[in-house]
Amino acid sequence: MTQYAIRRILYSIPVIFGILVVTFIMARAIPGDPCKAMLGEKASAEVCERFNREQGLDKPIPVQFGVYMKNIFSGDFGDSIRYSRPVAKILLERLPTTIELGLIALILAIMVGIPAGVIAAVRRNTAVDVGVMIAANTGVSMPVYWLGLLLAYLFALVLKDTPFWLPPSGRISAGLSATPFFEVFQWGIVEGSGIYNFLEFFANMYIFNSIISGNWEVLGDVIKHLILPAVALSTIPLAIIARMTRSSMLEVLRQDYIRTARAKGLFERFVILKHAFRNALLPVITIIGLQVGTLFAGAVLTETIFGFAGVGRMLFEAITARDFPIVQGFTVVIAVGYVAVNLLVDLSYVFIDPRIRLD
Question: Transmembrane ranges (predicted)?
Answer without folding.
Answer: 9-30, 101-122, 134-159, 226-245, 280-306, 326-352
